Amino acid sequence: MISIGFVGAGQMAQALAGGIAASDADVAFIVADPSSDAIEAFSAKTNSRSVEKADSNADVFASADIVFLAVKPQYFVAATETESIKSAIAGRENPPLVVSIMAGVDIKSIQSRTAIETVIRVMPNTPCLVGAGACGMSCSDQVAEADRDRIKAFMETTGIVIPVAENLLDAVTGLSGSGPAYIFELIDALALGGVKCGLPRNVSDQLAAQTVFGAAKLAIESGDHPSVLRDRVTSPGGTTIAGLKALFDNGFQQSIISAVEAATERSKELG
């Protein structure tokens, strides 16, 4: 049996634990979080697998084979009290594998704070909550291939996983990590456009969300470039080209590019 620890039991930790528990792996969980409600919600996601509540973050490091650091980056230092963790792993034959889902905090910093060399960084996004996540992943040089493959398989229970160089994880954060917020804004804007043109709000909301879902599904399953798919919808002199012109005139594409750039820079700052 593999013991999997979580420092932090928020929604993303819950989604990951639920995905891992639903896999074929023989696992037990140990979790530390100041919120009893979060731990209760975490336990509810694990399909009746064993979940132990740890008294401290150090206790997670003392007993788990794999430790997920599932806290926000601004709490990283507080969550990894170095001397406590060093004491916790001092008597272990092998220290745990550390998996971080924190934006911006690099592998070197995690190694320094935990005194553990085997570190994997992953950058999931909120669609992991419904099994449709997009995740970037990078490993320290000390991580064994078998451990890398195991964590990749665990993460794939919540969506796709794409290995990238660590220096690209900030860009992953800016694109897919923050990207759902951009898409939610797009859905709301589409719906508001429908309302302005006379549709009832509930009808407009449904059509907007399904349109975004369907377009994304078509892009994934067809394998065609988005620009090719766009051109297939766009007839000369038709409705779509009129709408696209309005988007271009109002800087739609540049706004999205700028959003990814701004979020990427913020990720670097958090590190």
UniProtKB/TrEMBL annotation:
It catalyses: L-proline + NAD(+) = (S)-1-pyrroline-5-carboxylate + NADH + 2 H(+); L-proline + NADP(+) = (S)-1-pyrroline-5-carboxylate + NADPH + 2 H(+). It is an enzyme of class 1 (oxidoreductase). GO terms for molecular function: pyrroline-5-carboxylate reductase activity. It comes from the Bacteria. Its main location: cytoplasm. NCBIfam families: proC. Catalyzes the reduction of 1-pyrroline-5-carboxylate (PCA) to L-proline. HAMAP family: P5C_reductase (MF_01925). Belongs to the pyrroline-5-carboxylate reductase family. This is Pyrroline-5-carboxylate reductase. The gene is proC.
